[in-house]
Specification:
This protein has a domain of 306 residues: Outer membrane efflux proteins (OEP) (Up-down Bundle), CATH 1.20.1600. 58% of the residues lie in helices and 13% in strands. It has 17 helices and ten strands. The radius of gyration is 44 Å and the shape is elongated. The N terminus is likely disordered. This is Outer membrane protein TolC.
Length: 564
């Protein structure tokens, strides 16, 4: 059963046992809590290939995580845009200056020599009311007074303020807005890339299950046919017209076939589980595939014409073994040298010049993603250069500050009209406000910006070099997928012809044995050859379907087909 395993394991390509299968009817199980209403209401979920792809795109956990990256990109755009909006802040603080800082003060300097100015409470009140006050002087002692340590302020202090700033000009901000939008596009393309991978995995898994289901049904028919032959042979043995050895040979053949059928049944169930995994469907949800293998089988002739290989070497019929078409007349525009180069290119599996001219690299999401990365690199370079531009910000602030000797007095909030018992003003909270412009002009940063620009320029050049590498990689994938598909079609044609021959040989052998002109060994050998031909045919059929998916992905058509 190595070939049976091959049919399943070939599906495990892109991710964790990648594609696998489809479901035969499964025993319904209890619906898992938390499923959607649609799944909860459907015990046996009908599933076509298109439905499987649509469900996977909407529900695959890896895609949901990738879409969170899109939301992060959108949030990043809002973050950058917010830097250009007004910035409003409100601040408040309280302080307990349990040990006030002191400073030395030379009072002799304030007095101007050996005299000092006198200041009375009445003088202070008159000055606050706007009256002119004539201050008197007194004579100081002959010895000068040394500088004295004084503590300015009171023990408890507090302030509250509101500030507003508005960015007026910043070259980096303008470039950042453009880069944020491009970054959002990059996140969307990365999501599309992940969706293409999911479409590929689900398609291969679906085809794998179709093939496994069809092969299982064929094995069931083989068992039924062999049971009929075994019964007839046993009856012939009981009548004395056959040997016991003939019956035993058929029993051995049947036992092997039943074991093979059981293995195929388990592999089919496993392929269904793998299909559910690729779709993001709970394992306890039963499914029933609605597409048939006959609908999935491609027309080899038309596919060869699309590939440009319906020529003398391959044929153009559906089987590939029919009539050979006439050689096409060479076009007048091609020179003999051009024809020779095209023939060599075709033999090597690459694309000819005419096919290469029709190939659009932008159909590949990888190429489009790299273009977006190049745009981001260009904006990053411009941002580094914009670091030399000035930055202008408008600012405004308004607030209050207060102080007191004790905490309770601090929260008294006394205004300008407050007076103490002795008549002195005792206001403890004072307002302040300001408006202004802040201009920052970079002059010299130790050549830091120069080296940042060099790094950004090198990163941009690296991406530009990546375009040529990506083109070569796409060309190789295109040539490889084309050659693989052509080879798979040729193998399928050959295996289909072998299956028809093996089926005819088995039919004739059974008729000869039934009529008594053939041997039991001939029937056993023919049945063994038929099963081998069947296994080879379905393996080749799966190879064609997978090669077709790989070809569509290489040409960038897989995603568009899934969206139809």
């Amino acid at each position: 059963m190595k070939k049976n395993l091959r049919v399943l394991l070939l599906a495990a390509g892109s991710g964790l046992l990648a594609p696998a299968g489809t479901a035969l009817a499964q025993t319904p199980t209890a619906t898992r809590p938390g499923l959607s209403n649609q799944l909860a209401a459907v015990d046996n979920m009908p599933l076509s290939l298109q439905q499987a792809v649509d469900y996977a795109i909407k529900n695959k956990s890896s895609l949901l995580a990738t879409r969170l990256g899109e939301q992060t990109a959108k949030a990043r755009v809002g973050e950058i845009r917010s830097a250009g909006l007004p910035q409003v802040n409100v601040a408040a603080n309280l302080a307990d200056n349990f040990k006030l800082q002191k400073s030395l003060v030379d009072f002799g300097a304030f007095a101007g020599g050996n005299s000092a100015t006198t200041l009375t409470p009445s003088d202070i009140a008159a000055a606050q009311s706007g009256q002119t006050v004539n201050l008197g002087t007194v004579t100081l002692p002959a010895e000068p007074v040394p500088p004295q340590a004084l503590a300015f302020g009171l023990r408890h202090a507090g302030n509250t303020s509101a500030s507003v700033s508005q960015l007026l000009f910043d070259g980096s901000y303008l470039i950042g807005l453009k880069a944020a939008k491009v970054y959002e596009q990059l996140a969307q393309k990365q999501t599309q890339q992940a969706e293409i991978d999911v479409v590929e995995q689900v398609s291969k898994a679906y085809y794998s299950t179709l093939v496994a289901r069809e092969r299982l049904q064929l094995l069931s028919r083989n068992v039924q046919r062999l049971d009929t032959i075994l019964y007839q042979t046993n009856q012939t043995f009981k009548a004395g017209f056959a040997e016991k050895l003939d019956v035993q040979r058929l029993q051995v053949q049947r036992n092997n076939l039943v074991v093979e059928q059981q293995k195929a049944q388990r592999l089919t169930e496993l392929s269904v589980a793998l299909l559910k995994f690729q779709m993001g469907l709970p394992q306890d949800q039963t499914v029933q595939l609605t597409d048939s293998l006959s609908a999935a089988v491609v027309d080899a002739g038309s596919l060869r014409q699309r590939l440009g290989v319906a020529n003398l070497a391959t044929g153009a019929g559906v089987t590939g073994l029919g009539g050979v078409p006439n050689a096409p007349a060479p076009t007048a525009t091609n020179t003999p040298e051009q024809n020779r180069q095209d023939q060599q290119t075709a033999l090597s599996g690459a694309r000819t010049g005419q096919l290469a001219a029709a190939f659009n690299y932008n159909n590949r999401i990888e190429f489009s993603t790299l273009e977006t990365q190049q745009a981001l690199a260009g904006l990053d370079l411009a941002n580094r250069r914009a670091g030399a531009y000035p930055r202008l910000v408008a600012t405004a602030a308004y607030g209050f500050t207060g102080s007191a000797n004790n905490r309770r007095d601090l929260f008294a909030f006394r205004g300008p009209d407050s007076r103490a018992a002795n008549g002195f003003p005792n206001q403890n909270w004072f307002g302040f406000g300001n408006v202004g412009l802040s201009l920052n002009i970079p002059v010299f940063d130790g050549f830091r910006r120069k080296y940042l620009v060099q790094q950004a320029r090198i990163a941009q050049q690296t991406i530009e070099r990546g375009f040529e590498t990506l083109r070569q990689s796409i060309d190789l994938q295109d040539a490889q997928s084309r050659t693989t598909l052509i080879n798979a079609l040729d193998v399928l044609d050959n295996q289909r012809a072998n299956l028809d021959l093996a089926d005819e040989v088995a039919r004739v052998s059974r008729i000869k044995f039934k009529e008594g002109v053939g041997s039991n060994i001939e029937v056993v050998t023919a049945e063994t050859s038929l099963r081998e031909a069947q296994t080879n045919y379905y393996s080749a059929l799966y190879d064609v379907l997978v090669a077709k998916v790989d070809r569509d992905k290489a040409t960038g058509e897989l995603y568009n087909q899934a969206k139809k």
